[in-house]
Amino acid sequence: MQEQTTQARKFIGIEELRPLPEKPRLPRRPPVIVFDPARCTGCSTCEMVCSQRNVDKVAPVSSSVKVVHSEEQGKNFAILCLHCREPLCMEACPVRAIDKDEAGIVRIRRVFCVECGICTLACPEAAPLQEPFTGRMRKCDLCDGDPLCAKHCPEDALHFYRGKALGWIRLLRWPVQLVSFLLLVVVLVGTFCSFTAGIVSLPCPTGTLQNIASTQTLVLVTLASALVLIGITILFGRVFCGWVCPFGFFLDLVGSVVPKFGLPKFLKSRMIKYGILAGAVGGAAGLGFQPFCTVCPIGSICRSYGPGGVIKGAELAIVPVIAGLELGVRRSWCRSFCPVGAVLALAAKIGIIKIVIGAHQCKKFSCMQCADTCPMGIIDREALREGIAPKIPMDECIMCLRCVDTCPYQSAKIRFRWQKTIPGEVKAWTYS
Amino acid sequence: MDVFLKSFYNNRVAHVDLNTSRVEFMPVPPGMLSEAIGGAGVTRLLHEHFAGQDPIVLGCGPLTGSFAPASCLMVATFSPDTKTLIHVPFLVNSGPQLKFSGFDFLVITGQSPEPVMLEVMNDAVKISGAGMLEGEISRRERTLMSRGRFCPEAILLTGEAARNGVGSAVLSLGQWGSLDKEGLGSYAEKKNIRAITLLASGGIAFPGENLEQGSILMKELRARYKKRQYVVQDFMAGGQAHRKLIRKHFRKSHACFHCPLACISYLEFTSRNGGKKRTGGVFLMDHEGFAALAALRPLDACTLMHACIEQGLDPLRAASLIGAEAPTEDALKTIREGLPGSRSTGTGPAPGSDVVPDEVFMAFGTGIPRIRPQAPDASWQSRVGLAMILGICPILLLTYPDLSPDHLLSFISPDAGFRDDLHQRIRSALNSIAP
User: Fold this and answer.
1) Residue A427, domain member (yes or no)
2) Residue A52 shares a structural domain with residue A82
3) Are residues A263 and A118 in the same domain?
């Protein structure tokens, strides 16, 4: 009898009645209404037309969009559903009255809704709106693909947009990485550490520093050659790490197939690489040879092919060890340990370009695809979750441009360091 | 006509008797809408209806809250000295909030023994104690806004100036300021009204076909003026001091309900108070008041404007009394402690204006900028009167020359004959509300 009751209890849970659907596949072009606060004058026309559609009369309380005036800051904000990739309201709803359809529109199914308001509490934007006196829940359903608020907004502060990722940058990056790998490993055998072709010489900057420290002599030609890569980094960021480095390419390949288990906290510090760099240079000064170069995974890979390559390169054993770090997080070597990256990071810190995320069209917490796709893990998820445009530390960015490529709303952009406005933003005092 | 016009209203009047703390509801008296259409026309008739009880009548027009552009107006009609009748316009979202709260007109009579606030929402008016409303207007506004689930969308507040017995104290829309320059704040304070809060709870089924028409008109009007922050200032009489200050401090344009003009500028400024730097912002809805302060004291006009709004004081009055030479600290002290010489009526404009006679200007609360109507065949009086009757922002009608009455009346009826009849009635109502 008791067993039967337990079974009966088990079967009346909401999880059994209406289990959460599997994570829906993101549509290729997720629809969204983009709000531009610089243009919004707070005229509430959106509320007016939305309520006209909802209840066939002008009744701002029955609108699915709400204009909030920040009278102390002199700003206006529109609260409306962003149709998140993984909607928190959907998970929070105790009666599973919220679902997301194939077009990417999150809807409240009125027949199930008990008007408890938990979805409003769960939503970072508080977008499901509850009518103050009736308790009825309202939420934007994008007017089934033709939102009236965007159509009638006199200021064009609301703009209906179907997201579309660029998608072509990765098609360019992978071939470039492959060609670079083949060039540095197969064609130009024994290169990168000190590649010389005619009068052109491109030595590794870390190797050069160790060389200077170990020989106690400064060869200006070598130094100038090493500065070429530094100069490129100042101009274009760490493109070497993202597009050229053969070991980076190897890590990208490994990282795309192995599962991730995370790294212990003491291995996560991005300062370790500076310590390794200092140790390598100091060691070279003390020992009289270049100690790091003997175990350098980039050099090992470069020296692994050609006459006596693999056999001679016993140090190649370091490669699988470091590749094993990919079980922790993506590009963990580049994030925390690579001293070559450390030198380039110092150059990128004073570089002239930056990546900005968080234009008005950025949907922040509702999307976060840029944070998911960044191999260096430098896009601050917490900032996005709080609706703040994250600041990208350019010394850690390897300029792979995955964020720019993936963002469905084109809100990740490359800008010069001195450009202070985020792209797409219209200065309030100049707009017309 | 009466029945037709009722479809633009809730057809409900709330009468609040502060002597007995009772609220009663009634339909709009028959024939009143057909005679005066709405807005200032009907509030005048209701004022006559409740004559002898010192009424303040708040009301909206048929187009308030509708798809017509700038349908934001609420009118407050009162008589400060039993002879003159003043119609004070309230903008931003006050009109729609009143209308959608379930009432078209709110009549407040009598005098409360204790300070009270009136909460208008969900087809009801609640009279409650105003003990917790203290300090400057911004603090009182925040108190009201943080009172829980039903926070009001529009708040009419009296400030410290009214409590100090200053005659030109205003009834303001919180941080937005006020177009009241005839001492409605002082008048409300005499009745012991500290605040009137409005929260929409329902709606009106305006003709749905007007949505598209309104949208097209809005976008056309929106495209007319590129730099909207200067539109009102450019048309106003007087120097260019206020324009220069706006150029220097302008941060953002704000609009009232469904308004394409967005003439409320938000100015950001830094002031020094007691050696401390302080950054603040001020909404510029009262263009006349700011122009007066800017002409007098261009260096600290923003600071003083902010102080006037905080204290619930008419900046025009402040400008006439604080003088051009006094240090900022002294001027602020004067504003905070109350200006000398209370008066029951407002300051009024400087005489000699050829745009509008003084008595007409005063009849409409003197807060509407005295700008020459851009339409060649229109007078300031006819444009403002039409707006005050229909429930449209008067500034919009003054600044757009080709926005004819017919444009607006087409939101009431598409029938040309009906519109002619309506126009005749508006004309006679207009003659009755303005001297």
Assistant:
1) no
2) yes
3) no
Strand partners, B254: B264
Does A174 fall in a domain?
yes
- Please check whether residue A5 lies inside any domain of the structure: no
Task: Report the distance separating Cα A357 and Cα A236, nearest Å.
Answer: 17
pTM of structure: 0.80
Which of A36, A46, A47, A48 is the best residue to mutate to test the B interface, defined by the most B CB atoms within 10 Å of its own CB? A48
Q: How many angstroms separate the CA atoms of B363 and A72, rounded?
A: 32
Q: Where are the domains of chain B?
A: 210-337
CATH of the domain at A124: 3.30.70.20
- Structural domain boundaries enclosing A95: 13-162
Contact A432 B122 (CB under 8 A): no
**Chosen from B253, B266, B400 to mutate, greatest number of chain A CBs within 10 A:** B253
A360 and A285 share one domain: no
Closest of B111, B140, B143 to residue B16, by C-alpha: B111
Find the closest chain A residue to B247 by CA distance.
A429
- Closest residue, chain A, to B72 (C-alpha): A43
Residues of B in contact with A155 (CB under 8 A): 222, 262
Which tokens belong to A361?
């069209």
How large is the ipTM?
0.92
pLDDT per residue rounded down to tens, chain A (432 residues):
555 555 555 566 777 777 777 766 777 778 888 888 888 999 999 999 999 999 999 999 999 999 998 877 788 889 999 888 888 899 899 999 998 888 889 999 989 999 999 999 999 888 999 998 888 999 999 998 889 999 999 998 998 888 888 889 999 999 999 998 888 877 776 556 665 555 556 678 888 888 888 888 877 777 787 788 899 999 999 999 999 998 899 999 998 888 888 888 888 889 999 999 999 999 999 988 888 888 888 887 777 776 555 545 556 677 788 888 888 899 999 999 999 999 999 999 999 999 988 766 787 777 888 998 999 999 988 888 777 788 889 999 999 999 999 988 888 889 888 886 554 433 333 222
Q: Which of B214, B286, B258, B221 is nearest to B64 (CA)?
A: B258
Separation CA A347–CA A230 (nearest Å): 6
Asked which of A122, A144, A162 is the last residue of a domain, the reply is A162
Examine the domain organization and report whether A145 and A77 are in the same domain. yes
Distance of CA B396 to the CA centre of its chain: 14
Asked whether A136 and A156 are in contact (CB, 8 A), the reply is no
Together in a domain, A296 and A268: yes
**A331 and A363 assigned to the same domain:** no
Q: Which of A51, A151, A432 sits opposite B203 (nearest CB)?
A: A51
